[in-house]
Amino acid sequence: MTSSNWQPTASIDTLKQRAKIIAQIRQFFADRNVTEVETPQLALHGVSDPYLVSFKSRYVGPESAEGRDLYLQTSPEYAMKRLLCAGSGCIYQLAKAYRNEEGGRLHNPEFTMLEWYRIGFDHFALMDEMAELLQGVLGCDEPERMSYQKAFMRYLNCDPLAESLESIRQRVMDLGVADYAAEETDKDALLQLLFNFCIEPEIGQQQPCFIYHFPASQAALAKIHSVDPRVAERFEVYFKGIELANGFHELADAHEQAERFAADNAKRLALGVEMMQPDQNLLSALEHGLPDCAGVALGIDRLIMQALGKTQLQDVMAFTVKNG
Amino acid sequence: MANFSTNEFKGGLKIMLDGEPCNILENEYVKPGKGQAFNRVRLRKLISGKVLEKTFKSGDTVEGADVLDTTLSYLYTDGEFWHFMNNDTFEQIAADSAAVGDNVKWLVENDECTITLWNGSPITVTPPNFVELEITETDPGLKGDTAGTGGKPATLSTGAVVRVPLFVQTGEVIRVDTRSGEYVSRAQK
Questions:
Q1: Is B39 helix (H, G, I), strand (E, B) or coil?
Q2: Cα–Cα distances in Å, from B65 out to A180, B40, B83, B182?
Q3: What residues of B are in contact with residue A193 (Cβ under 8 Å)?
Q4: Whole-angstrom Cα distance, residue A275 to residue A291?
Q5: A186 Cβ under 8 Å from any chain B Cβ
Q6: Do A177 and B38 touch (CB under 8 A)?
Q7: How is A183-242 classified by DSSP, letter by letter?
Q8: What distance in Å separates the CA atoms of residue A153 and residue A147, rounded to the nearest whole number?
Q9: Which of A164, A186, A209, B71 would bridge with A204, disulfide CB 3.0–4.6 Å?
Q10: DSSP 3-state of A84
Q11: In DSSP terms, which residues pair with B126 in a beta bridge?
Q12: CB contact, 8 Å: A178 with chain B?
């Protein structure tokens, strides 16, 4: 039986355009003296974020006769931070990232990520640089900027930092889209539903939109704001309803990082998912000292999809999980 | 009936929602870079026909609906029920007016219809895409008129009313698209 399943899901012409955009991105960083690096995709630790699922693999070989678990990286952030601590200076990486349990129109379990770090930048300076990159690749106007709180105030007349869990839950119930909200006790999960249904469709329609200063409970690896501890120095980028990137003014405090690992594991336990050993190498590196820096991860397949006016990831990827 | 996790969701899957069987039309997986994943699902309730959007937390499971499409020939109506037969097994099934609904006007004896069964009982009757019916009443067309002037209403043998070109007359058999309720052509003799 013949099948056309062997064919690439993107056209050859699209793949040529994709290669040009990748070259343009490399030139962008070459012009700014940012060094390209490569770090392991198979590593001893996986991400601690309770909502990310790492692929686990098993290494057997010299000095590992019994075998040991290695995790395909969901992003190269831990290793890149170790390079920064070791004195690499500004760095970027264009590499595959892997996330299990993610698939669909805008997801593939294996995708290309651009991650870069700028020493001496805070999240605002990095947004400036990212705006230049986006304008160059997407041919769009200067991106908009809005704080997370302001976005909620503008589109929902709701203060996400002040409103109670019950009040936020009631708003989700009133929307009538997610019955499970009735039993949801995680305020961030409820805020995410409001964001997805009521804010994402409104922002970044003409040009990309930066949303910054997420609630401190959603800090991930970002610093907590020094003046307003209710928020974290974290930003995301949205364009035409699609999340493109996530950036931080990077947390440098080893002690606080260890606490966040512990908090993530407590949540993993509550959710009934596998706990993740804290990455001691990252903690040791942070103790040695991370220079003040900001970093961001950008989904390259989504960016190229939007640059070329496509509507699904498979239109810009040679092969996907469906026929890889 | 089996339960389905959100990972098994796809267009065409039949699940139970609020006690009513539903057909999934579209399923979009949404995973914020940071935070809990969910599925935004568009579904059609199979009894009321209502289309709605629901959000499921990824990983949740829902009860499947025992829904089956069968192809059966329309036999006759006794006024209360519409009777259909499986041409292979000669098994007969009766559908009530709620299942037949507005499609009663497209039921032609011996035509093969799609009957959707839920737990073995008919919940919807879908006629073939095209049916042939005789015109029982329409105004005579004016001499010299041809197609393309908007046509005229014609009543068919089942009571259905469709717009037909002016040259088509009472007693003729025409072909109608049941999805749009539009005239297609005169029937081939």
A1: strand
A2: 20, 19, 24, 33
A3: 38, 55
A4: 29
A5: yes
A6: no
A7: G---HHHHHHHHIIIIITTTSSSSS-EEEEEEEGGG-TTBPBPSS-TTEEEEEEEEETTE
A8: 10
A9: A209
A10: helix
A11: B114
A12: yes
Provide the whole-model pTM. 0.84
Burial of A257 (0-12, 13-18, 19+ CB in 10 A): buried
Residues A12-143+207-315, CATH architecture? 2-Layer Sandwich (3.30)
Best of B8, B55, B56, B61 to substitute, by most chain A Cβ atoms within 10 angstroms, is: B55
Nearest CA in chain A to B34: A51
Interface-testing mutation among B10, B28, B31, with chain A (most A C-beta atoms within 10 A)? B31
Distance from CA of B9 to the nearest CA of A (A): 11
Q: What is the pLDDT along chain A (324 residues), one digit of tens a residue?
A: 567 889 999 999 999 999 999 999 999 999 999 999 999 999 999 999 999 999 999 999 998 899 999 999 999 999 999 999 999 999 999 999 999 999 999 999 999 999 999 999 999 999 999 999 999 999 999 999 999 999 999 999 999 999 999 999 999 999 887 888 999 999 999 999 999 999 999 999 999 999 999 999 999 999 999 999 999 999 999 999 999 999 999 999 999 999 999 999 999 999 999 999 999 999 999 999 999 999 999 999 999 999 999 999 999 999 999 988
Evaluated on CA atoms B90, B93, B99, B103, the torsion sign reads: positive
Contacts of B41 in chain A (CB under 8 A): none
Question: Would you list the domain boundaries of chain A?
Answer: 12-143+207-315
What is the residue whose two structure tokens read 């006790």? A185
Q: Cα dihedral sign for B155, B160, B166, B170?
A: negative
